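Sequence in, structure out. Go.
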Amino acid sequence: MEKVHGLTLAADDPRVAAAQQAEQQLFAFYGLEAKTHQIQLPGMGIRIRVTETGTGKPVLLVPGNVGDVFPLSPLLAELKNWRIIAINRPGGGASEGMDYRKVDFREFAVQTLTAVLDAFSLDRAPIVAHSIGGHMSLWLALDRPKRVSALTLLGVPGNLISTLPPFALRLLSVPFLNRFLFGLITSGNREQALRGLSFLGHSPETIARLPRAMADCYYYFQRLPHVQTATLSLMERTNQLWGARPEIRIKAEELKRVLQPTMFLWGTNDPFGRIETGRRIASILPNSAFHTIQGAGHLPWLDDPAECGRLTQDFLGGL
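Output:
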């Protein structure tokens, strides 16, 4: 891959300090002890931040959205007996930023996940992934099958067959308009920082139960210097107003070649894809399990962390 010029973050930037302090408070709320590592992606010119929690057998975690780890804190609290190695993707989680329009996204995804496995001397590992992180992980399972032992896919994993982001999010793929919309999304105060979760299928009751530290994280991480560039360029690189770009969508023919054990945890209120669609997708994979999370949205562990944790524990423990 052609070298990408990373958008650096200054260590003394008060925005970075505020985001990391909010994350520490969120981890403390959930009783998480976390270590962070800085990893240079070989040949890419980008440094990313990797968060490590728990003890036991290693599991690679690949977040969705812009790539922040912090929203997964409620699930991490259920997986403390696993060594979770969680990637903060470029542009998210206080990693350096990048313009995703300048890369072959599939090649970037495979190289990034491979680089993190290599950095932790893992020849092979199970992956827990969310949304576009699930999409990236499926590509790794297809292109580097020996590196992936199993897949747990949380929420609808992006553009599989007929799944797609809701229209309001696809608007973020429209150049110039997306900058205006991103400004509106991030214009609220800290008390309004979780309002976007309602568009992802989460109930007012779920949002009200989340700790203040979660809202603080959403507020401060959205205001890091390169989040807008990374978020909007990723949407432009992967989507169009009417759906996925052809080179991004994973079709049935490819899904048939995913031989690793794969578990889907699919919220009944996830606006990215209907339950019937999820069952059809799971039936295409040769070795898959499909579970619905009742009343859950696109981040199903926010609605039912105990159930998502139990299913993930059982699945990983049975490998």
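Check: The CA atoms of residues 110 and 295 lie 33 Å apart. The chain has a mean pLDDT of 93.
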